[in-house]
Structures are given as C-alpha cells and as structure tokens.
Amino acid sequence: MANDDVAKKIDVNGIVQGVGFRPFVFQLAHHYGLKGEVANTSHGVSIHVEGSPDRIASFESDLCQKHPPLAHIVEISRQTESVRHYPDFSIVHSRGETEMSTLISPDVSICEDCRRELFDPNDRRFHYPFINCTNCGPRYTIIDDIPYDRPKTSMRHFSMCPVCQAEYDDPTDRRFHAQPNACAQCGPHVILCDHRGNEVRTQDPIQKAAEVLKQGYIVAVKGLGGYHLAADAENTDAVVRLRKRKLREEKPFAIMSYDLEHIRRYADMEADEIKILTSIQRPIVLLRKKIPTCISDEVAPRNKYLGVMLPYTPLHYLLLKPGFIALVMTSGNLSEEPIAIEDDDAFKRLGEIADFFLVHNRDIYLRSDDSIVRHSGGAQRFIRRSRGFVPIPVFLKNKVPPILACGAQLKNTICITKNDTAFLSQHIGDLENMATYDFFQLTIDHLQRILEITPEIIAYDMHPDYLSTQYAEQRPDIQKIRVQHHHAHIASCMAEHKLDGPVIGMSFDGTGYGLDHTVWGGEVLVVEEHAFERVGHMAYIGMPGSTAAIKEPWRMALSYLQDAYGSDFRNLDLKLLREIGSQKITVISEMISKTVNSPLTSSLGRLFDGVAAIIGLRHRVNFEGQAAMELEMLAADSADAIYDYEWITDNMYKILPAPMIRGVVDDVQNGMAIAEISAKFHWTVIRLFADLCDVIRKDRDLNRVVLSGGCFQNATLLTGLIQALEKKNFQVFTHQQVPANDGGIALGQVQVAAARFRS
Predict the structure, then answer these.
(1) How far are the Cα atoms of 215, 232, 287, 577 from residue 293, in angstroms, in the given order?
(2) Separation of alpha carbons 674 and 468, rounded Å
(3) How far apart are CA 269 and CA 642, in angstroms?
(4) Helices 604-614 and 553-565 meet at what angle, rounded to 10?
(5) Residue 582 lies in a domain
C-alpha cells in the first residue's frame, strides 16, 4: 500500500442485513481498489477500509448513494483508525454483541433481474414461482426470530441444493446470503386443490388455476403475507358470487394487473401514481376509473376510483401472464376477520368461498395485508400501512423508553419503541372478534421477540370498552398511560414531522371517546406532546340508536334536521322523510328529544353521513365511512358558492351545523344537482375551519396547523384545507408516513406517553 494511505472505520446502522449490503460493500471496495473487511454486527454493519483519501471519499459517497434497493440507512458514523495493511478486502463472520438493534427489511416485490430469469426458458429457475435474490422477496413474514438467518425463517425446512448453496456462499453473486434462496429442485412448490383440500392432478398448477379463473371460478391464492381470493375482474357474475360468499356487499375490491399497459385500459394514472405503483413496495393505489371501463361495475360500485396493484411475487406474474386484464385480489377472509395464512385454517374458513386453492408449502409466520395508498394533496397518503412498509420504523426526535402502544379499536395497529425508533405494526384490523384480538396479541409478542424489546410503559386509548384498552389494563407490573383519542391523532402527525408544540390540531373522524364521556370527532385543539386543550368543536348532536346511527345515516339526518328546524322538520319536502315514514320519524324524534339511547357527538364524520342521507345518497351503509366516501366521490370539482356557517363562543368555539343543514335542504328542495350540493358542502367545511384557524391564531399566536383523523382520507377535504390554510400563510403538517385514520393512533400514543414520562 502507498505511504499516504489512510484507514477508516465506518459503522452503518439501519436495514443493512439480509439485503445484500455486505456484498455491495465488498464489490464497491474492489471497484476503488481498497483493502479491509466488512462484518455484520448487532447494530448493523461495520467496515474497516484502507486506501488513498480520495478513493475512500468516493467509496463513502457511493455507500450512501448506490446502496442495494432494500437497504435503509439510518445512521453512518466514521472514525480514523490505524492502517493494518490488509492484503485484500473480505467479508468476515458476524460479530455478536449483547444487544441486537439492527433493523429487519419488509417484504418487497420481485426485482427485475429475477423477473427476467422467471421468463427466460434457458434459466434454471424458468417459471419457478419462488424465485428471489438478496434484492427482493419475503423477509418480515417469514421471520420467526433474530438474527435473520435461514434457520430462524420458514425456509429452514428446505435444504439448499449444491447449486443454490454455491450462490448463497459466493460474495459476488446477488444471492449471497439470500435466506429464501431456492430453486425447483430444493425449494417450496405449488399445488392446486379443490375447495375440500383434495389435490387437483395437473402438470402446471398455476396454469390450471388461470384456466379455472377464466371459466368464472373463485381461487384462493396463497401469497406473501396471506391468502387472496381471486376472480376475473371483467366477469360480473364471478365478482357478484365472490361478494355474496365473502359477505362483502359493496366495499371495493382490490385488483391486480400484469403491467401498466393493462392498467391503462381501465384507469387513468398520473406520474406520481405510476411511481408508487411500480415501487418495490407495490401497494394498492387508488386510481380514477376510465368511463366506460372494461372492469365490472361490481368491483367498486358507486366509486370513481379503483384500488389497483401490480404483481409483487413471481407466482402473481405467472398467474396473470395468460392474459387477464385484471384479477380481483382481495384479502382471504370473511368480512371483519383476519386474513388467512395457515393452510388448514384457509380451507376451513375459505372453503365455502373459493372453488379452488392455489397452495404452497412455505409457511407464513406473520400475516400482512396489502398496503393501500392514495396520492393526494401533493404526497403519498397511507390508507393502510402494511406489507412492503412494515417493519420500517418511524424515527422520533428524541430517545424514548421502551413503550408499547395498543392503538385503537378500528383499523388497529400497535407500536413499540426502542431508543429513537417507533415500530408501527402491520394492519391488524377491527378488534371486534376473538380472531382479530388473537392476531393483535400475536403481533405484540412477535414484535417484542424479533426486536428484543421489553416494554416499560403501555399506552392505550381512554375508551373503556375497547379490547385494546382492556388488554392494556390487564397487563401487570407495567406503567400505564391513557391517551385521549384525538390527542393521539395530532401527536402521531407531530411525531412524523418531529414537531414540538404548541400547534393547532384539527382532528376529524367518526368516533373517539371524549374527556366529557361524549363521542368526539370534530375537534379543534391546541396540542403539545404531553397535553392538549380543546378550543373548538362541532356542536353536540344526538346519535339516535347509538352505534345504529353509524350504520344507518338516515338517523343522523333526522337528528341534524330536528336540530336545524325543530319539530317543523317533519313538514319539509324531502324524499328522505317520505321513505322513512311518519312512524319511524316519531320514534326517532322522541329518542332525540328525550336523549334516550342518543349519546351526544361532535363528530364531523357523522355530519358527512347526515348530509349524504339528506340529499338521498345513502340511507344505510355496508362498511364504515361508506356514506361519506360516496359523498366525496360524486362532488363536483369546484363550487361557485358555499353555505352559511356559524360558531358561537362559550368558553370555546362551538360550530353550529344548522346553517349548513338549512342550506343543503334548500338546495335539495330547489332541485340542485347533488354533485353541486356535495361540492358546496365540502367547500363550506373547508372555509369554515380555515377561518376558525385564523381566529385561533390571533388568540394564541400559533401559526402551525396539524391535520389528522379519518376524515382526512377525503382528498377533497384534505387538499382544499391545505390550500386554504396555506393561502392564509399557515404552516400545514399532514400525514405521509402513517395513516391519518386510526391506523396511525398507536404512534401518537407513543409520543404522548413518552412526553408524559419525561415530564
């Protein structure tokens, strides 16, 4: 080595194990003629490199800029070391330490190199449905324990053949230390079964599955994070049959197409949407339908959008290759149950839904539903954060104690912390049955094990009836911190952006347990991490029938009409009132007046429901948020006018719904198109809250506004309010790393609990 050579130790922390990082470092060092070694450690990867200063500088630059696609660098530390005169550069054995803090890669889509091999007749893995390499394939869903080595994954049941083993051992091969490495001779395989579990004898199970799909049958397909239920998306009879069997009346189905050219036949795509669709995470992306469309109307009835994804496993590519425009690929479950991952359970639960099962013998250790995103307000927005993104953590501003946050009741996720990292789990679902609750507990145990975290604090929602709350309160010997639902919403967005308070928090959703034991959901708060003050809210209104009012928006419509007109509302010329009938109206009116089974709510979500029912759009819903979603779907792009709005000041700002309701009723009676009414209503809500923020800014000298809660899945509301606030020179902060809905609540619970612990 030259006399002016220097040596550096470079420690890299993040997702850098099991993703081809050491071979990348090895090849990079050889490219620049450097000597030294690289090794895995409990904290990531440690590199000792020797050579000329300029070559080491180029090496360091490429280390950050050209790392493997699955690597996620969190931190790089450097220090000068003595030159040891290494003869070459090598990969050395892992160095064990007492604490594991390296991060685990999520499951990601098949890479282009593997896809080329998959369809190359001269390749030994031609049409092998489990082809993968260090840059792609399963990770999180096949891990049982750490460190991430083959004996601690579901691949431990498959011994590599000599050729696969040679690839695995070769640092210059892209399958070096790829734990799921396999081929048709030594790895997992696929079989096709009928709905009773009997094998269907065929030379090509995937081709045969494609044939029965073309014939209109439903096939349960075992994938990366669980089973899908597949059907031909152009075949209305098949889609209707799937809806009936799955007990999913109208909620949209996700669909999968072979490539972008197929998607262009039925959906419009912007450049940002294409970027998300083709990313290695391959989430479901909401795309605007083309009219007319070749996709069955039953896939996403009364919806302007389709949930679309590209294939992310080799099996998907092989199944779609025979020429489908799109396949329905919906979660393999009955409505409200967790997705099936075990074969016996799948045959038991899905045997009455699917006609055939495309099964493989690689176990799935942890279920992970498809992620769902929407591009709106200039950014990618999560509706569901799961496969492809979990367990990549959210990095916090400060180090926090080990905290377990139990999330909410609906769209549940849990969150667990280590130092300055918050690990939000995959989507768990609605905690409304024991199967989902069991999955909730399994996810907690699994994350604690693979991350080696023992929580010292448990954070949870204030609602006493939530199963997540009951779980937390039954945990012995751990500090417990209750967090109000809407405080957690705002805190979750603050955590994303590393914000300190105070901020103005606009927390809008359907349901959250309030400090006064009412149902909150249209909240204007002044928020700090450890505490909040409620400074405004939608005025309280009765929910006749309690939870029945969520499933039957006509009940909320009557409540808002009675609030706006008193008993005279019965005389209004509304189709809604004629369809409900005088007898029901009398009963509901009495319930509201006497507050019998009519809890009070300030929910903005319920106001959207009520307006949807008043204009005749939706009297009953088949899934959460359906009425509000359809109200958004039909809204015109802009409104020439808005409705009157009003708030009163009584210790805080109380927003009165009556002026808006009277305006909506007048327009309905005057025959205005419901698309125009919806647009006017949306823009009234936007203007109202932007103006209220202006008033609060003058009161409190606050210029930062944080938006969170399930209502902000509404792209019209989100985009409009961002624009209105920015025109008033507010700084606006919105969700980009976690969902605005209850799927992000656990992160906020962590943030609040940590702040209270510090204080």
Answers:
(1) 21, 14, 13, 35
(2) 40
(3) 31
(4) 90
(5) yes
Query: 197: which 2 tokens?
Result: 């579990």
Q: What are 477's two structure tokens?
A: 């010997």
Binning pLDDT at 50, 70 and 90, where does residue 717 land? very high
Q: CA-CA distance, 151 to 510, in Å (whole number)?
A: 46
The model carries a pTM of 0.94
How far, in Å, CA of 665 to CA of 408, rounded?
35
3-state secondary structure 432-448: CCHHHHHHHHHHHHHHH
| 319 DSSP assignment | H
Per-residue pLDDT of 512-561, as tens digits, reads: 999 999 999 999 999 999 999 999 999 999 999 999 999 999 999 999 99
Spacing of C-alpha 422 from chain mean position: 15
Predicted local distance difference test score (pLDDT) of residue 450:
85
Contact 697, 705 (CB under 8 A): no
- Domain tally for the chain? 3
- CATH classification at residue 648: 3.30.420.40
Asked if residue 559 lies in contact with residue 548, where contact means CB atoms within 8 angstroms, the answer is no
Angle between helices 53-65 and 21-31 (to 10 degrees): 150
User: Do 545 and 678 fall into the same domain?
Assistant: yes
By the 10 Å C-beta count (0-12 exposed, 13-18 middle, 19+ buried), 88 is classed as: exposed
Which amino acid type is present at position 192? L
Domain region containing 282: 190-360
Q: Return the CATH number at 20.
A: 3.30.70.100
Which residues have a Cβ under 8 Å from the Cβ of 123 and sit 6 or more positions away?
A: 117
Exposure on the CB side of residue 522, measured as CA atoms within 13 A: 25
What is the distance between the alpha carbons of residues 459 and 745, in angstroms, rounded to a whole number?
Answer: 11
Q: What is the DSSP string of 590-638?
A: HHHHTTSS--EE--HHHHHHHHHHHTTS-SS-SSTTHHHHHHHHH--S-
